[in-house]
């Protein structure tokens, strides 16, 4: 077994309960999802549904947090929330939502809501602990997060758990928080510049500019990051929500139906008539949970690192502010994206050949040796698909026929779309010549190939993936809408890079000492540059494992310290009754 296959299997088991093609856990819901939801439910019960009871007062605390609420700390509670949101609000709010709907149906959004509700309890618990057990180093800098409440709350015998968390944080920061976000920005800038200006910007040039912008923000440390996030993140989120609201106002008559579609699909009511209710529900649960967890990061342990830096004397108050971050990320922003995808009706299309090929692969029918999916079955939106089909259509059509003979249900329209009659007697050179002429022959050929595509009403029903679905939905909503996602993606990814730089820095300084602070910032800039020029596909798989290596030790600590969370919760039902903060130097003994 090669290393990539091993990584895929480990990530598949953690998040999906599968090992390769074998279903290890019934329902294909991974152990991490079960533990996260279980811990969230446990904490919700233990704190007497505080996120629901104290939701409105927490909103007031967020507004009041624009000013410092205590002497200790580095940034205001508002800036701490914005810094945490900079890491939470990212590509998952655009691509993750589309993926959840595509793989799990509209009902996946309902289960994202459930994850968010329990996630608010986790966010409250971990951020309250982060403030209570934070430390002030010899230079006056505030350090906090799961590694510190493991060390100071559970004692030095649990130091190994804090080390695992920090290693996972560094891994996750470098992969998903840094390189992949930089790569996403590079792809967005490249695609937009080519489609609108006809310019081809080399990735290294984008990398240099991006690295310089990141360096300008992070070199000043958490105060600079907090100031930047406090100004940019609220505006960024508000503008995106405003754009989504405009789309929903235009399609107001379809919004009630979208909500009914979400709820009906979540419980299999829509699929029941077709006899596939169980499959529909389990898919909705699985992908709703996994995408929801990826989006809001509740329980992962990243956000409390930012909240630990807040200037507040009350850990519980900051915990309540933290739970609003989960609400903003999932209940507001993710829901807005979902409603846009579900309500916008347009002239969309998909390749029946590609959809059939996906069914064959899912049934473990291997592609011909030496080929890949894109080479045989281009999407309905792939540039130059005519030449691709002309070159490989015969092989693709024959493979689909073999797959059907093996027992996979494939319709004739899919086989015909793999190699349309108009192309069967043409070579790729013939197609290229017609395209170069750009005359009636080329136009007629395109029309004939387009006729083999299947028209659908919604972007999520096409053969697109992730953010492309959201882009097409906005593009069909109003003129210029196709630019919303690339612009939002740039700012979402950029602020994620900024937030995760601090998380990685805190993990590094915990492991090796404060001397690593400035070297890590320079190292982070290098990671960002490399992320723009390297292929990032394999990093997503590593990121899945790295996120789990953060979440597992954090959840263990939350369960072990749940009595401390409950004590703070009970003492602070009166918002004016604070709970003492454990303000320690790094050399002082743990409790």
Task: Please provide a brief summary of the model.
This protein has helices at residues 3-16, 31-46, 50-53, 55-64, 77-88, 95-104, 107-132, 146-154, 159-196, 203-218, 221-250, 255-266, 269-272, 277-296, 303-307, 315-343, 352-362, 373-376, 385-405, 412-418, 428-437, 440-450, 467-477, 484-512, 517-533, 537-560, 562-571; strands at residues 18-19, 22-23, 135-136, 142-143, 348-350, 454-456. The protein has 591 residues and is mainly α.
Describe the protein:
- There is one protein chain.
- The protein is mainly alpha-helical and 591 residues long.
- The chain is built from 27 helices and 6 strands.
- The protein has helices at residues 3-16, 31-46, 50-53, 55-64, 77-88, 95-104, 107-132, 146-154, 159-196, 203-218, 221-250, 255-266, 269-272, 277-296, 303-307, 315-343, 352-362, 373-376, 385-405, 412-418, 428-437, 440-450, 467-477, 484-512, 517-533, 537-560, 562-571, and strands at residues 18-19, 22-23, 135-136, 142-143, 348-350, 454-456.
- The strands form 3 sheets. Strands 1-2 form a two-stranded antiparallel sheet. The chain has a two-stranded antiparallel ribbon with strand order 3-4.
- Helix 7 (107-132) packs antiparallel against helix 16 (315-343) and helix 9 crosses helix 10.
- The protein is globular, with a radius of gyration of 25 Å.
- Residues 272-279 and 581-591 have low confidence and may be disordered.
């Amino acid at each position: 077994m090669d290393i990539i296959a091993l990584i895929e299997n480990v990530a598949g088991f953690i998040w999906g309960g599968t090992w390769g093609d074998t279903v290890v856990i019934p329902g294909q819901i991974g152990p991490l999802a079960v533990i996260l939801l279980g811990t969230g439910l446990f904490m919700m019960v233990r704190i007497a549904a505080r996120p629901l009871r104290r939701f409105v007062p927490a909103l007031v605390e967020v507004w009041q947090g624009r000013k410092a609420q205590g002497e200790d700390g580095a940034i205001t509670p508002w800036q701490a929330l914005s810094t945490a949101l900079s890491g939470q609000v990212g590509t998952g709010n655009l691509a993750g939502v589309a993926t959840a709907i595509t793989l799990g149906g509209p009902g996946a959004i309902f289960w994202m809501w459930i994850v968010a509700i329990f996630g608010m309890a986790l966010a409250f618990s971990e951020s309250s602990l982060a403030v209570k057990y934070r430390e002030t180093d010899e230079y006056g800098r505030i350090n906090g997060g799961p590694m510190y409440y493991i060390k100071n709350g559970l004692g030095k015998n649990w130091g190994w758990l804090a080390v695992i968390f920090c290693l996972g944080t560094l891994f996750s920061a470098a992969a998903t928080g840094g390189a992949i976000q930089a790569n996403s920005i590079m792809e967005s800038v490249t695609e937009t510049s080519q489609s609108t200006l006809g310019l081809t910007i080399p990735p290294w040039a984008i990398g240099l500019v991006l690295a310089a912008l990141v360096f300008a923000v992070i070199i000043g440390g958490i105060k600079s990051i907090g100031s930047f996030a406090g100004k940019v993140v609220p505006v960024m989120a508000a503008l995106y929500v405003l754009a989504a609201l405009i789309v929903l106002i235009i399609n107001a008559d379809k919004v009630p139906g979208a909500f009914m579609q979400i709820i009906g699909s979540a419980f299999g009511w829509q699929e029941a008539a077709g006899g596939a209710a169980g499959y529909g529900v389990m898919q909705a649960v699985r992908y709703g949970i996994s995408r929801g967890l990826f989006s809001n990061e509740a329980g992962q342990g990243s956000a409390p690192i930012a909240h630990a830096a807040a200037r507040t004397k009350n850990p519980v108050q900051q915990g309540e502010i933290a739970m609003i971050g989960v609400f903003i990320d999932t209940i507001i922003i993710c829901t807005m994206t979902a409603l846009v995808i579900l309500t916008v009706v347009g002239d969309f299309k998909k390749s029946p050949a590609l959809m059939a090929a996906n069914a064959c692969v899912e049934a473990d029918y291997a592609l011909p040796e030496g080929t890949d999916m894109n080479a045989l079955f281009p999407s309905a939106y792939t540039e130059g698909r005519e030449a691709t089909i002309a070159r490989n259509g015969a092989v693709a059509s024959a493979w689909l026929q073999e797959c059907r003979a093996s027992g996979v249900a494939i319709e004739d329209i899919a086989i015909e779309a793999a190699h349309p009659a108009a192309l069967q007697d043409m070579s790729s050179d013939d197609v290229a010549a017609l395209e170069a002429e750009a005359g009636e022959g080329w136009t007629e050929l395109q029309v004939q190939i387009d006729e083999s595509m299947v028209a659908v009403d919604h972007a999520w029903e096409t053969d697109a993936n992730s953010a492309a679905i959201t882009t097409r939905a906005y593009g069909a909503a109003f003129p210029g809408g196709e630019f919303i996602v690339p612009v939002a993606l740039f700012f979402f990814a950029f602020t994620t890079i900024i937030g995760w730089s601090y998380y990685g820095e805190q993990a590094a300084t915990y492991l090796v000492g404060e001397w690593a602070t400035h070297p890590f910032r320079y190292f982070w800039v290098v990671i960002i540059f490399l992320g723009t020029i390297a292929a990032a596909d394999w990093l997503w798989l590593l990121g899945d494992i790295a996120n789990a290596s953060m979440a597992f030790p954090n959840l263990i600590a939350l369960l072990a310290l749940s009595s401390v969370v409950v004590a703070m919760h009970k003492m602070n039902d009166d918002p004016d009754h604070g709970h003492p903060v454990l303000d320690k130097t790094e050399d002082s003994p743990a409790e």
